[in-house]
């Protein structure tokens, strides 16, 4: 029993070390991306990172719960999140997935300080760089580049929503599924089939 407990503690220690190294690598990757793609300086990055916190979620942990007011935005560093609402029968209807590099936000709840209409939950072990809503004005003031980045990310999210609506109207369930396989293989790999089916508005018979 003592040996087994010792192995377990060693495994936990190694896992924590791995997560720490992974988080460090992720933030370094973000730094390189910001410098290369958005012309950040070292000073811009140093000013930015002081407002960011790494949030680690396990499967089924909530980033945001329906009915609560959103208090943060996030950038997915690794893992996968899913947003969903409940229909009149209490069934979960998947409205979106958030993959690596996705911008996670409940815009209406955050901006209007109203209860969120959806849940956002981790599908697997997920790391998210978050910024508290109260710190956003300070971040935008100190590093104005973030304002244009946030607008671009919101624009991309809106385009994604519009494209999904278009696909629902013009593609068959099988075509939507095949497109998801091509565009987002990580969703196919990690998400439950029932959640994928509700996202593309399909029965589970096509697979």
Walkthrough of the structure:
- There is one protein chain.
- The relative contact order is 0.14.
- Residues 1-5 and 7-22 have low confidence and may be disordered.
- The protein has 207 residues and is an alpha+beta fold.
- The protein has helices spanning 2-38, 42-49, 107-112, 136-142, 145-170, 173-183, 185-190, 193-199; strands spanning 52-57, 62-64, 72-78, 81-86, 92-98, 103-104, 119-122, 126-132.
- The chain has eight helices and eight strands, in the order ααββββββαββααααα.
- The strands form two sheets. The chain has a four-stranded antiparallel β-sheet.
Portion in beta strands = 15-25%
Share of helix, binned: 40-55%
Using the alpha-carbon principal axes, give the shape. globular
- Ranges where pLDDT stays below 50 over 5 or more residues in a row are 1-5, 7-22
Overall mean pLDDT stands at 85
DSSP strand tally: 8
What series of H and E elements makes up the topology? Answer: HHEEEEEEHEEHHHHH
Largest sheet: 4 strands, antiparallel
Q: How many helices in DSSP terms?
A: 8
Radius of gyration: 19 Å
Instruction: Give the spatial strand order of the biggest sheet.
Output: 1-8-3-6
- Give me the secondary-structure category: alpha+beta
Amino-to-carboxy terminus distance: 45 Å
């Amino acid at each position: 029993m003592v040996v087994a407990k010792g192995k377990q503690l060693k495994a936990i220690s190694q896992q924590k070390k791995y997560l720490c190294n992974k988080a460090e690598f992720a933030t370094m990757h973000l730094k390189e991306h910001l410098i290369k793609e958005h012309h950040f300086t070292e000073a811009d990055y140093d000013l930015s990172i002081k407002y960011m916190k790494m949030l680690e979620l396990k499967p089924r942990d909530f980033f945001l719960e329906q009915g609560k007011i959103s208090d943060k935005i996030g950038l997915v560093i690794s893992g996968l999140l899913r947003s969903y609402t409940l229909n009149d029968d209490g069934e979960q209807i998947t409205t979106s997935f958030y993959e690596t590099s996705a911008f996670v936000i409940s815009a209406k709840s955050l901006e209007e300080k109203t209860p969120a209409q959806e849940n956002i939950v981790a599908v697997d072990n997920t790391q998210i760089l978050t910024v508290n809503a109260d710190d956003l004005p300070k971040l935008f003031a100190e590093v104005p580049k973030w304002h244009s980045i946030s607008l671009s990310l919101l624009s991309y999210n809106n385009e994604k929503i519009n494209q999904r609506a278009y696909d629902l109207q013009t593609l068959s369930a099988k075509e939507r599924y095949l497109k998801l396989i091509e565009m987002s293989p990580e969703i196919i790999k990690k998400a439950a089939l029932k959640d994928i089916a509700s996202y593309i508005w399909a029965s589970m018979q096509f697979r």
